[in-house]
Design brief:
The complex is a heterodimer of chains A (309) and B (267). Chain A has 309 residues and is mainly alpha-helical. Chain A has twelve helices and no strands. Chain A has a single domain, classed as ABC transporter involved in vitamin B12 uptake, BtuC (Orthogonal Bundle). With 267 residues, chain B is α/β, with parallel strands linked by helices. Chain B has a single domain, classed as P-loop containing nucleotide triphosphate hydrolases (Rossmann fold), CATH 3.40.50.300. The radius of gyration of chain B is 19 Å and the shape is globular.
Chain lengths: 309, 267
């Protein structure tokens, strides 16, 4: 592949995939340590109908309607969970499970019933992502990176995920200390004046924004792998949170790049004909990295787990 | 009306809630239908070591957590040195129960102690050599200096407890609140902790400890606060820690043999 082809066909999907993976891995580190990792999964399921409704109302896939729709869907879910929990008098876990699945199913049905043939939003893309089609048609080679006219033709998903990553990274950097302290010891954090409730909510919102922005790249099912696999693998490489986050960013990048390349060329190398889903391959690679770290990582023991008594 | 200077001469027992390090009025906390703490008044005496004593589930930890704003009370008023808690956070150091955190958390001993300096460091302030030196000094005081670079999960229970105490020392507070610091620790740790607490007391600090072991109360503490959802007794050990108050705190749950044993200790 020469430079022209690479910039046109592969540069933007690679960047979008990598930025998505890092934007999810950063809050994922804290979610995994707080044992809230499945919140990422819940978010990605719940927001689907909101994204579809946002699209239906505006007729275009653009950032704000999608984000607003996602936020609306999240609020509706919280209200529904509370209502089911109180009216049905059942435990919160069951209420959540019912609501998440129903919201996701509603999103899929909405998608199926809607004419979305003019844009890249259909069931398959919503579930598995759309990474391969996010190409940069205006590019003519590496010189396009400095050409304003060609840059204007960049797929809008790229600036969207880039801004999201910047926001998530800034949030992690500025609130690093309170996030770390309240994740380790919430009671102590409150006594020194950290508003742990608001901070926890901010973390979940940051994760939700990352999940919605990553929707383009990997769809709403596989995004969970981006939240969990790189941070969980990184945890087994080190016993320091600072180092863990660096490892998680590294693993996220490797998963995205290697996953994209393997999806595009792996089947050809093996004698097959067609490329496979990039999102699926990214999740598979991140899963393999997690497996390798679980077997060979230097910090796998859980000597410090609290005793049950 | 007494002015502030002459009030210094009043004996500790006479102090009202006005300038108490920690004064609680009408505190009620509930986790569900039943209150865990009901309408409790507490006035901690300055410069003293106070034990909060009561049976399991009597609301000892809850009282401490509500006084610190960790759990939200249904009602009640808390003042710290005569002012609202929010304005006095820097004067308080809290040591939670060891089992309340996951010790597998990826961090080192020194980093936990540095958490005690986070108000001073702010959001983005860099950890400088003097902060490190201060943290190392606090570790030294609990006999854990050599463990500074260890991952916290590699420590024994007693060592973890001492790291928590070092973090509280790093806060350089006036009031120290400890939740069950002696629970499940080895004899070396118990000795190390009590030595540190006594040295805090002798430098004029106030110490409040949720305590389990009735046998060591008279040896370690000079004030007690007995609670079983409601306050049972409060005062100097000699007056408030008696066979009668213990009986009404523990009810039938304290064997008569134990009461006898404690009565012997009390003389």
């Amino acid at each position: 592949m020469n430079g022209e082809e690479f910039v046109t066909l592969s540069l933007t999907p690679l960047l979008i995939g990598t930025f998505s993976a890092i934007a999810c891995a950063l809050p994922g580190n804290f979610l995994v340590l707080r044992k809230q990792a499945l919140i990422g999964d819940a978010i990605s399921h719940v927001v689907l109908p909101g994204i579809v409704v946002g699209f239906l109302l505006t007729g275009a896939i653009s950032t704000w309607p999608m984000m607003l729709g996602a936020a609306g869907a999240a609020i509706v879910s919280v209200v529904m969970i509370e209502a089911i929990r109180r009216l049905g008098k059942i435990e919160p876990g069951a209420a959540m499970g019912v609501v998440f699945t129903s919201m996701f199913a509603a999103g899929v049905l909405l998608l199926e019933q809607t004419d979305t043939s003019t844009v890249h939003l259909d069931v398959e893309h919503a579930l598995y992502g759309n990474l391969e089609s996010l190409i940069w048609l205006d590019a003519t080679g590496w010189q396009s990176v400095l050409d304003p006219q060609a840059l204007a033709g960049l797929p809008p998903e790229l600036p969207r995920i880039a801004i999201t990553l910047l926001g998530v990274a800034l949030f992690t950097w500025i609130f690093w200390r309170p996030l770390k302290i309240s994740t380790f010891d919430e009671g102590f954090a409150r006594t020194i004046g950290i508003r742990t409730g608001r901070l926890g909510l901010a973390l979940v919102i940051a994760a939700a924004i990352a999940a919605v922005a990553a929707f383009d790249a990997v769809g709403s099912i596989i995004v969970i792998a981006m939240f969990i696999c790189p941070p969980a693998a990184a945890r087994m490489m080190t016993n320091r949170l600072e180092t863990q986050v660096v490892w998680s960013v590294f693993f996220a990048t490797v998963s995205a790049v290697l996953g994209y390349v393997l999806a595009g060329y792996g089947p050809l190398w093996l004698g097959g004909l067609d490329a496979v889903s990039a999102a699926g391959m990214i999740a598979t690679v991140s899963g393999l990295i997690l497996m390798i770290c679980a077997i060979f990582g230097p910090c796998r023991t859980r000597s410090g787990a609290p005793n049950s008594n | 009306m007494l002015d502030l200077v002459s009030s210094q001469g009043i004996t500790v027992e006479d102090r009202g809630p006005g300038d108490s390090p920690l004064a609680v009025r009408g505190l009620t906390v509930s986790y569900g239908q039943k209150p865990a703490v009901f309408s409790v008044d507490m006035t901690v005496q300055p410069g003293a070591m106070t034990a909060i004593i009561g049976p399991n589930g009597a609301g000892k930890s809850t009282l401490l957590k509500a006084a610190l704003g960790i759990v939200k009370p249904l009602s009640g008023l808390v003042t710290v040195y005569g002012r609202p808690l929010e304005q006095q956070r820097t004067r308080i150091a809290y040591v939670p129960q060891r089992a309340s955190v996951d010790w597998d958390f990826p961090t080192r001993v020194i980093d936990v102690v540095l958490m005690g300096l986070s108000r001073e460091l702010g959001l983005l302030g860099r950890v400088r050599a003097r902060h490190k030196a201060h943290a190392m000094d606090c570790l030294h005081r609990v006999g854990m200096r050599d463990f500074a670079d260890r991952q916290i999960g590699q420590l024994s229970g007693g060592q973890q407890q001492r790291v928590f105490l070092a973090r509280a020392l790093a806060q350089e507070a006036d009031l120290y609140l400890l939740d069950e610091p002696f629970a499940g620790v080895d004899a070396t740790t118990e000795k190390a902790i009590i030595d540190v607490l006594k040295s805090l007391k002798s430098s004029g600090k106030t110490v409040v400890v949720v305590h389990h072991d009735l046998a060591t109360v008279t040896e370690y503490f000079d004030h007690v606060f007995l609670i079983n959802t409601r306050k049972v007794a409060e005062g100097p050990v000699a007056e408030a820690f008696t066979a009668e108050t213990l009986q009404s705190t523990y009810g039938g749950r304290l064997a008569t043999a134990q009461i006898d044993q404690i009565s012997r200790v009390l003389g």
